[in-house]
Amino acid sequence: MNDTDSVKQAWIDEAALMRARLAPPGVAGREALSGRSGEDFLAGISRGELPAPPIGELMGMTPLKAVDGHAVFQGTPGPEHYNPLGAVHGGYAATLLDTAVGCAIHSLLPAGRGYTTLELKINYVRAITVNTGPVRAEGKVIHLGGQTAIAEGRLLDAAGKLLAYATTTCLVFPI
Fold it and tell me: Of these four, 6, 73, 123, 125, which has the most CB atoms within 10 Å of its CB?
């Protein structure tokens, strides 16, 4: 097994362990969101105390980390994500990246604060196919202000190749 294959298997195993902890998909509700810091809210999802977001099941993505302004989500693209040209639709990468950068921001928010994406910019670097295997979206906060936040994200394959790059600006508001 080469290094990339070892990384792929480690990623698959790590995601499977996390999925086993997640609660069934659902919506936590405003009470759960407003009464917890962003990091505590996201940790509650990871511990299975709060429902997993339905988009995760739809897109086949797994939360792996969301702490201290850094978030990691993993997905494995399949034929159900293909566009008519025979490659994974750009919306798949955009969804993974939007989730990672948004949750990176959310992880820094105090209780009673929420966010929404104002702008998302994606640069697609390489085509993604079913042969790509698992991919990871990593988001990192660049700026957190009282009303706006900025983050960047990278979508990588198990060989460390950059597949897509994103930046976001989010509105931060009271809940």
Answer: 73
